[in-house]
Amino acid sequence: MKTKNQSVKTMKSVVLMTLCAAPVVLLIGAAHSPSRSETARIARGKYLVDYGGCNDCHTPLKMTDQGPQPDLSRMLSGHPESVELPPPELKAGPWFAATAGMTAWTGPWGISYASNLTPDTNTGMGIWTWEMFRKAMRTGKHMGDGRDILPPMPWRSLKALSDEDLKAVFAYLRSIPPLSNRVPEPVGPKGPVSYQ
Ligand code: HEC
After folding, report:
1. Within a domain: residue 166?
2. Is 139 inside a domain boundary?
3. Which of 90, 124, 175, 183 is the most buried (most CB within 10 A)?
4. How many domains does the chain have?
């Protein structure tokens, strides 16, 4: 059995060891903090993307035994390039329509196709900078300074996010697998138009 004195000694050395180790732990922590905070930012971005319903429109649905499910092998890659659509033939009225995959819509604005949000360089958002993303989501202009972003893209909901949260969404989108899928250009109410 330890005497009282021995116990106090042991405690003292434990305290000493902890105190000595603390700066080392802090130093190691500091060296790794950028990647740790980046990981946290990406996790926050995934949380916001999941809650924000981005997959509902930017990930095509596939038919399964359990009914329509998001096709995660094409996660956030937008309207499939292989699915061509005829020109809209909607009569004037209060309706608008979506494709079965939920990635293209037709209404008074023509046809809009959900964009490829993956970091693919040629067909996705690989060339987008944070500044372009911030401007696009804050102003509703294509790539930050082009044509108007068409319905039903809820850019006004993203506009409500803080810069920090918007950065997290962007960081997450950059972290997902790049998928090559060239989404068609939108079509105006009277046929193809240059929206550039
Ligand atoms: C209700 C369907 C819908 C939802 C939900 C949705 N989007 Fe979109 N999104 C679209 C459509 C359609 C387009 C293409 C619009 C166009 O061509 O103008 C688009 C385009 C975009 C673009 C490209 C904008 C540009 O400058 O051309 C980005 C970036 C984007 N969405 C991000 C997101 C993110 C992030 C979320 C989730 C928070 C999200 N979207 C949720 C339908 C949606």
Report:
1. yes
2. yes
3. 124
4. 1
DSSP state letter for 141 = B
Residue 114 Cα, ligand 1 centroid: separation in angstroms? 6
Q: Residue 67 is part of which domain span?
A: 54-192
Q: Which residues of 19-41 are buried (b: 16+ CB within 10 A; e: fewer)?
A: eeeeeeeeeeeeeeeeeeeeeeb
CA 78 – ligand 1 centroid, Å: 9
- Ligand 1 site residues, Cβ closer than 6 angstroms: 49, 52-54, 56-58, 105, 112, 114-115, 117, 136, 142-143, 149-150, 152-154, 158, 169, 186
Residue 7 Cα to ligand 1 midpoint, Å, equals 65
- Render pLDDT for 79-106 as a digit per residue (tens, 0 to 9): 999 987 777 676 777 778 888 888 999 8
Q: Assess if residue 3 is contained within a domain.
A: no
| Domain-embedded: residue 5 | no
Q: How many angstroms separate the alpha carbon of residue 152 from the centre of ligand 1? A: 8
Average pLDDT over residues 130-142: 98
Q: What's the burial of 109, exposed, middle or buried (CB within 10 Å: 0-12/13-18/19+)?
A: middle
